[in-house]
Amino acid sequence: MGKNRFCSGVSTSWVERRSTSPILADVTHDIDRTLGFAIASRHARGRVARLGPVLDAVLAAHSYPPAIERLLAEALVLTALLGSLLKDDAGQMTLQAQTEAGIVELLVCDYRAGEVRGYVRFDADRLAEGPSDPSLFALFGRGYLAITFDQAVSGERYQGIVPLEGASLADAAQSYFAQSEQIPSLVRIAVGRDGEGCKAGGLLLQHLPEGEEGRERLHTRLDHPEWEHVAIMGGTIADDELLGRDLPLETIVWRLFNEEEEVRLLGGAALSRGCRCDAVHIRDVLGQFPADERATMADGEGVISVDCAFCSRVFPVAAREFTMNS
Ligand SMILES: [Zn+2]
Predict the structure, then answer these.
(1) Which CATH superfamily is domain 27-273 in?
(2) What is the topology classification, in CATH, of domain 279-325?
(3) I want to staple 186 with a disulfide (CB 3.0 to 4.6 A). Which of 203, 205, 215, 308 is the partner?
(4) Ligand 1 centroid vs 61 CA: distance in angstroms?
């Protein structure tokens, strides 16, 4: 812990804000939530997120091998970080990574009002043939990362797609922001496991030199002095800090940026596992198949079992329901 970050002057405004932070008062176990912050003098904003039981709940719906669990855990941290950038509660952020010939064909996660979910479709045989800790390239080959923000209130939809490059999803997310949104960004993600289960944490830092979110930027300037400093400090974050269940997220922000004139805490969201699958929707989808194709889906009892890719819940639908209606 520590490095050089503690030995510095203490900012008064920070201390005042910090001591009045209601969340900080009784925190002994800080998990399954996000926290936003802004460093006005550097035109930077950030998010920290830590997942524990939520991660266990998502992973428990599948029985993925360790490499896929790790990938999905990383993706869920990224989902929480990006989802918490949404301006309205009803908005949705969807993260999708896919390839044509990779071991992982498809990874989908989404975020709405603090609820996260996700799943991975992959080739188990090819995965088993490779190393136990495959690189991002080994998993996806030449893949793409698509990130979609649907703002519910304004009806705005924004989607950016970038090649899935780098050593990790965090790297790919950094290039997403640099290439697709022209926002210099730093993304750090750590994934681990302790006696209590899976845990994962992440930090997202961004430079918004115009001081305005959403304004079009013509180029990404990674060497801006304001940003260089913030990125260097942010880059000192340790995996232990991101993963420490007992380390309040506010303390992480404090450790990284207590030398700054003012760091404003922006609040955050509690995270939970949520799925929006429902029986009516599944019946509607089945109803769109031709009758003969539907017949091949039914088992000996005439039941079509459809399971939700996200939560693995199984919805049995009697095939005769459709013949009765048609
Ligand atoms: Zn579901």
Answers:
(1) Hsp33 domain (3.55.30.10)
(2) CBS domain Like (3.90.1280)
(3) 205
(4) 9
